[in-house]
Design brief:
It is built from six helices and six strands. With about 180 residues, the protein is α+β, with helices and mostly antiparallel strands. The strands form two sheets. It has a four-stranded antiparallel beta sheet with strand order 2-5-3-4, sandwiched between helices. It has a two-stranded antiparallel sheet with strand order 1-6. α3 crosses α6. The longest helix is centred in the last third of the chain and has 45 residues. It is globular and about 70 Å long.
């Protein structure tokens, strides 16, 4: 398996300094937007990443948590602040969902992050550290398949969480109802 430096396979754009952004808060990309984008990763096929004036289809990298997601059409107009960087994938070299999977789940990436943050003081990764990360590359069809499976896995996890929330709410409602009927006796 071939490895390539991240900066060689994506165009990296750093977010803007928050004090220089003259937009309402609703126009600034945040962790909630990133969470929603990651949960809806399976819908990436509905995005149009070919448009140059949008961020849709770009991978967003959170510089605080080192988590990634693919920016959805719904959040494409949001401005990235200094807590994020945008990774525009060359679609002939790397699939955005595959890159997201590798950066979020790869043991190789975790080892690199750990090695780069070692020292007397545990330090945060710099943007240059992130640019130097070695990304394992497989053939593009395999990347697309891995990316699709990863997106479905996240979606299924989300569905399971939603189901558990509904079950818990239903059980709470039943217990409250039982308490109320017990009071009437």
């Amino acid at each position: 398996m071939k490895e390539e430096k991240l900066s060689n396979i994506v165009n990296i754009v750093l977010g803007k300094n928050g004090s220089r952004i003259q937009q309402p808060k609703s126009k600034i990309y945040n962790v909630e937007h990133m969470t929603a984008d990651l949960e809806n990763l399976y819908q990436l096929d509905n995005n149009d990443p070919s448009s140059n004036d949008t961020n849709a289809g770009n991978v967003v990298f959170n510089l605080n948590t080192y988590q990634t997601a693919v920016i959805s059409v719904a959040n494409a107009d949001k401005i990235l602040d200094q807590n994020f960087m945008s990774l525009k994938c060359n679609d002939k070299v790397i699939d955005p969902r595959y890159l997201c999977f590798i950066l979020n789940n790869s043991n190789s990436i975790k080892r690199q992050e750990s090695a780069m943050s070692q020292g007397l003081i545990v330090r945060r990764l710099s943007t240059n550290d992130i640019k130097r990360m070695q990304i394992p590359l497989v053939r593009l069809p395999q990347q697309k398949l891995i990316g699709q499976i990863y997106a479905m896995q996240i979606h299924y996890q989300w569905l399971i969480e939603q189901r558990m929330n509904l079950v818990n709410k239903s059980l709470e409602q039943i217990m409250k109802s039982l308490i109320e009927t017990r009071k009437e006796l």
